[in-house]
Give the backbone structure.
Amino acid sequence: MDKIFVSTEWLATHLSDPNVVVLDGSWHMPNAARNAQADYLDGHIPGAVFFDIDGVADNTSDLPHMLPAPSDFARMVGALGISDSMTIVVYDELGLFSAPRVWWTFKAMGARDVRILSGGGPKWRAEKRPTETSLVTRPRQTFETDFDPTRVADFETVRDRSRDGRAQIADARPAPRFHAEVPEPRAGLRSGHIPNSLNVPVSLLTEAGQIKPVADLQQLFTDRGLDLTKPIITSCGSGITASTLALALHLAGAEQVAVYDGSWTEWGGRKDADVET
């Protein structure tokens, strides 16, 4: 776990390291009535750059925050002052919610060293560490991508694996959404889940804004019917908490994990996608 997470103490001593870049990767659900960039301007970790999950995305897609083409990603993050050789430390203001999406994105694009701040912004603030309100800009850098397609699953792959069972599909949405007991927060989507998928609500993976111990995660996945030795595809509403689930599976020892980038926003919005309730 230490290979992915860094402590607030570690970050505090490395804030001035020229090879360390800190990213505020906060993002909120559409119905949360919060603006992550406005929150960033109200106060963030000194030197942190705001990473806009909706902005560093495929702007040709109707789906939210889909992965951009590697060349577009390189251009956008290079403009933020991030190179592929830097140590990239990501945090969010909910503790551990959207930071794993940024972690997964950079890993998929070939970044060499991506970390997540344990406890995120809430822990940093609880320890009364300094914050600043200015918009941080950094000199342009060159980001050389090395895209890893095994980390991403598209609609056709998920549809085929749902039918042939060659990969397990794990859905991180809350159980009432998975079971079609409540409507989706995005208008126009059907309720239910991908056929033959398993429900592993993201709320079960964390405690007090931090990931649970590895042994607890392993037991949870066993209890939920997942075999960590076989391929797993994670899904959620729009690929955010699916990334948290992918992170937890990685920590638990799973080696073949892909995120369904379109997730339920794509699946539930397509008439040709089968839905179970």
The chain has two domains: 5-147, 150-267.
